[in-house]
């Protein structure tokens, strides 16, 4: 079963410095039909204006992934981390017992386009942690970027979930097998994608064994394999 969510169906907020789309209920956007999907709680697509960003704010008990699509995002946090996240890189922050961080557009002339992802951890009160990795040189149509066991060089998250990135040329395909009882969320970041023949911007997938993600054009998508 594939439940398609169109891009225009998402929540939207335009704050001037921030133009954002919410796949699930977040901040002032509340949709009882779209509160989360399994342990995937937040999936926001953000455009942050030049020389702007999120001032210091706190998080706790959440696994937070940041994927920069265009531009550069500067991150600072109370763990002492200071870094810049660029296209091809993925950041993982375990908020655990509590982290304060800020995220600012590194450019003074161009916006930064990114995905903010929150996954519920398997336990509360974890020690805060940080990882960042460049996956741009990884081979294959479906690259693991986050997993519970950090397999194949992916970032380690504290949940029974795996996150893959599919960068597809037009007409190429990535295939993923879903184990019995598993579920998937597919989020298109760029271009046009078909999953098992259905064109989509995002989709929840259950009771399907094989997922065939095909680039209808040059495309970039994330696949979440969830318990």
Write the layout of secondary structure elements.
Elements: E1 2-5, E2 11-14, E3 18-22, E4 40-48, E5 53-59, E6 63-70, E7 73-77, E8 82-85, E9 89-94, E10 99-105, E11 112-119, E12 129-134, E13 143-147, E14 155-156, E15 161-168, E16 173-177, E17 183-190, E18 193-195, E19 198-200, E20 202-205, E21 210-215, E22 219-226
Parallel strand pairs: 13-14
Antiparallel strand pairs: 1-20, 2-3, 3-4, 4-11, 5-10, 6-9, 6-11, 7-8, 7-10, 9-12, 13-15, 15-22, 16-21, 17-20, 17-22, 18-19, 18-21
Features:
227 residues; mainly beta; globular; seven-stranded antiparallel beta sheet
Characterization of the model:
The protein has no helices and 22 strands. It has strands at residues 2-5, 11-14, 18-22, 40-48, 53-59, 63-70, 73-77, 82-85, 89-94, 99-105, 112-119, 129-134, 143-147, 155-156, 161-168, 173-177, 183-190, 193-195, 198-200, 202-205, 210-215, 219-226. The strands form 4 sheets. It has a 7-stranded mixed β-sheet with strand order 1-20-17-22-15-13-14, with no helix packed on it. A 7-stranded antiparallel β-sheet has the order 2-3-4-11-6-9-12, with no helix packed on it. 36% of the residues are buried.
